[in-house]
Amino acid sequence: MNRYEPNTPRTTFAIAALIMSALTMGALVAGPAALDGDTTVLALARPATEVRISPARIEVIATRDQVVTVAAADMPHVDR
């Protein structure tokens, strides 16, 4: 019986995956951490926007329907 051998070079793909993971972590974690947080936050800060809710009060009025009786599954007139 012949043994299956895949054509893809597993070692090359594993090394490439590790390199891409390191680049991603560097770009998303180490890069922003290296920036001076005070100047970045002040540069991105925007003035507050006033929000008004109209109407300021919402009234919910509920009605209750009549009680519904549910038939048990063992009753003869219930289809299964």
Strand fraction equals under 5%
Which outline best applies?
flat
Distance between the termini: 54 Å
The poorly predicted ranges are: none
The level of helicity is: 40-55%
Summing up helix and strand content along with how strands pair, one would put the structural category as mainly alpha
Q: If helices are DSSP runs of H or I spanning 4 or more residues, what is the number of helices?
A: 2
Features:
flat; 2 helices; single chain; 41% helix; mainly alpha; 80 residues
Give a structural overview.
The protein is mainly alpha-helical. It has one domain. Helix content is 41%, strand content 0%. The protein is built from 2 helices and no strands. The chain has helices at 10-34, 37-44. The model has no long low-confidence stretch (mean pLDDT 76).
Question: How is this fold's topology laid out?
Answer:
Elements: H1 10-34, H2 37-44
Task: Describe the structure concisely for a colleague.
By secondary structure, this protein is mostly helical. It contains two helices and no strands.
